[in-house]
Write a structure and sequence with these properties.
Elements: E1 4-7, H1 11-23, E2 27-33, H2 40-44, E3 47-52, H3 63-73, E4 77-79, H4 89-97, E5 101-102, H5 107-114, H6 116-125, H7 141-151, E6 155-159, E7 168-171, H8 177-192, E8 197-201, E9 207-215, E10 221-233, E11 236-242, H9 249-265, E12 270-280, E13 283-290, H10 297-304, H11 308-316, E14 333-340, E15 342-343, E16 349-350, E17 353-354, E18 357-359, E19 366-370, E20 377-378, E21 385-393, H12 396-409, E22 411-413, H13 419-427, H14 429-433
Parallel strand pairs: 1-2, 1-4, 2-3, 4-5
Antiparallel strand pairs: 6-7, 6-8, 9-10, 9-12, 10-11, 11-14, 12-13, 14-21, 15-16, 17-20, 18-22, 19-21
Helix pairs in contact: 4-5, 7-8, 12-13
Length: about 450
C-alpha cells in the first residue's frame, strides 16, 4: 500500500479523497492555486504545495508542476479525482514514465476510451448495442453531413475527445448541419485541443442510465449497479439516484453484463462508468465510458456499502478485489443533488462571492460532500459545484421525502445557488412518480 498520495484536484472531491486516505493510514499532499491558498482541501491535507496562479491552465491543468510537486513531496501515487486531468492520457502516461502510480486506468485505456468514436467501435465488437451513427471520427463537415443524411434527422454532433456537454450540438434540420458542426468542432478544439467529431442519431426522450464498474489487475470485473442520471441541463447532471427505479430486473442484469463486457473489451482496470441511453423499457444503447471517478459515485456507495475511492486506491496498489459479483447487494435507495453556485432564474448564470452563512442538514441517512465554510470565497475560475447532498433510505419515496427535508434545512447565504430550483424539482409530480427522461428540464 502507498505511504503518501498527492491529490491533483480541488474542492469537495479533493476533501473526499483526503478523508479516504486518512482512514487508510495514508499521508496526503494537496496541490492548490494561489487563489485557493485558504481552501479546505489545502488545510486538511498533511502537506500542501502551491502549483501556480488561479487560472486552471497554469495550476490544476499544469502537468509539469503537478509531477514536480509529486516528486518533491515523495508521494508514490496521484489521485486525479474528476474533471481537470482525470481523463488526460498524456498525464497518465507521464506518471507511468516517472514511476508514479496513476490512480485510474492505464494511459492506453484512457486514450482508447477517451476517443468516443473509438470507444463505440470497441464495445460494438464486444456485442454491446450502440446508437446508430458514425463508426469512425470525422473532421470534415462535408463527410459528416453525408453520415447525418444517412442516419436521418435529428442527429447529435459530439466531440470524440469530449465530455461535460462541450463540443456537442443537436441538429434538427439538414439545412443547419454544416454551421452547427463547425461551431461544435471549434468548441471541441478550444476545450480539448482535438477537432475529431462523430455523429449519432439523436434520441430526445430517453433515460440516461450509467453502470458503475470496478476492475482489478487480475482481470476481476464487477458491476456495482446502476444510477439514473436523467435529470440534467445541457448534458450536465443535476440529480442522480441509485438504483434506477424504471428498470426491470431483467434489464438491470443485461445492462450490468454489457458494462462488464465493455470493460473487458478494453482491458479496463480501476473504477469506471459505462453510460447508456434507454429510449424505451426494452432497449438500451451504449453512449460512452468515463475512465474516472464520477461525481455521483456517492449514491452507489450508499446502496452498496462499498467505498469506491478506497477500492480505487487498493487496485492501483496492486491489490485484487476482495469481493465478487455475487457479493454486491443493493440496499435501499439513494438520491444526490448537486448544489451549484448558479442563478437558475437567470439562465443559470454562475455566481461568485463570499458565503456569509452556512447551515448543513444532518441526520440518519444524510451525507454531504462539500468544501465550503463561513466566509468561504466562491471563485469565478472553477466549476460552480459547491456541494453534493446525498440521502439514503429504504425506499425511493422515503429517500425523496428525506431529500425534500434536507434541501429545506440547507442554508447557504451570500451567493445565489440552485438549492431552490432543486427543491422545486424533488417536489414536482413527474419527478416523484419517476415519470421523467433526459428531456425533463428542457
Amino acid at each position: 500500500m502507498f505511504n503518501k498520495i498527492l491529490i491533483a484536484n480541488r474542492g469537495e472531491i479533493a476533501v473526499r479523497i483526503i478523508r479516504a486516505c486518512r482512514e487508510m493510514g495514508i499521508s496526503t499532499v494537496a496541490v492548490y492555486s494561489e487563489a485557493d491558498k485558504g481552501a479546505l482541501h489545502a488545510m486538511l491535507a498533511d502537506e500542501a504545495v502551491c502549483i501556480g496562479p488561479a487560472v486552471p491552465s497554469e495550476s490544476y491543468l499544469n502537468i509539469e508542476n503537478i509531477i514536480s510537486a509529486t516528486v518533491a513531496s515523495g508521494a508514490e501515487a496521484i489521485h486525479p479525482g474528476f474533471g481537470f486531468l482525470s481523463e488526460n492520457a498524456r498525464f497518465a502516461e507521464l506518471c507511468e514514465k516517472c514511476s508514479i502510480k496513476f490512480i485510474g486506468p492505464s494511459s492506453k485505456v484512457i486514450s482508447a476510451m477517451g476517443d468516443k468514436a473509438n470507444a463505440r467501435k470497441t464495445v460494438k465488437q464486444a456485442g454491446v448495442p450502440v446508437i446508430p451513427g458514425s463508426d469512425e471520427s470525422v473532421i470534415d463537415e462535408k463527410r459528416a453531413q453525408i453520415i447525418a443524411d444517412e442516419i436521418g434527422y435529428p442527429v447529435i454532433i459530439k466531440a470524440s475527445a469530449g465530455g461535460g456537454g462541450k463540443g456537442m450540438r443537436v441538429v434538427e434540420r439538414k439545412e443547419d448541419f454544416e454551421e452547427l458542426f463547425i461551431i461544435a468542432r471549434t468548441e471541441a478544439v478550444n476545450s480539448f485541443g482535438n477537432g475529431s467529431m462523430y455523429v449519432e442519431k439523436y434520441i430526445e426522450k430517453a433515460k440516461h442510465i450509467e453502470v458503475q464498474i470496478l476492475a482489478d489487475k487480475a482481470g476481476n470485473i464487477v458491476s456495482l449497479g446502476e444510477r439514473d442520471c436523467s435529470i440534467q441541463r445541457k448534458h450536465q447532471k443535476l440529480i442522480e439516484e441509485a438504483p434506477a427505479s424504471s428498470l426491470t430486473e431483467e434489464m438491470r442484469r443485461k445492462m450490468g453484463k454489457a458494462a462488464v463486457r465493455a470493460a473487458k473489451a478494453c482491458g479496463y482496470t480501476n473504477a469506471g462508468t459505462v453510460e447508456f441511453l434507454l429510449p424505451d423499457s426494452q432497449t438500451f444503447y451504449f453512449m460512452e465510458m468515463n475512465t474516472r471517478l464520477q461525481v455521483e459515485h456517492s449514491v452507489t456507495e450508499e446502496v452498496t456499502g462499498i467505498d469506491i475511492v478506497k477500492e480505487q486506491i487498493k487496485v492501483a496498489a496492486g491489490q485484487a478485489l476482495d469481493f465478487s459479483q455475487e457479493d454486491v447487494k443493493i440496499n435501499g435507495h439513494a438520491i444526490e443533488c448537486r448544489i451549484n453556485a448558479e442563478d437558475a432564474e437567470n439562465n443559470f448564470r454562475p455566481c461568485s462571492g463570499k458565503i456569509t452563512e452556512v447551515f448543513l442538514p444532518a441526520g440518519k441517512g444524510v451525507r454531504i460532500e462539500h468544501c465550503i465554510f463561513h466566509d468561504f470565497k466562491v471563485l469565478p475560475f472553477y466549476d460552480s459545484m459547491l456541494l453534493k447532498l446525498i440521502v439514503h433510505d429504504d425506499t425511493r419515496m422515503n429517500a425523496i421525502r428525506k431529500m425534500q427535508s434536507a434541501l429545506g434545512e440547507l442554508i447557504i447565504d451570500g451567493i445565489t445557488t440552485t438549492q431552490d430550483f432543486l427543491y422545486d424539482i424533488v417536489h414536482e409530480e413527474r419527478f416523484v412518480s419517476g415519470n421523467f427522461d433526459t428531456g425533463y428540464l428542457k
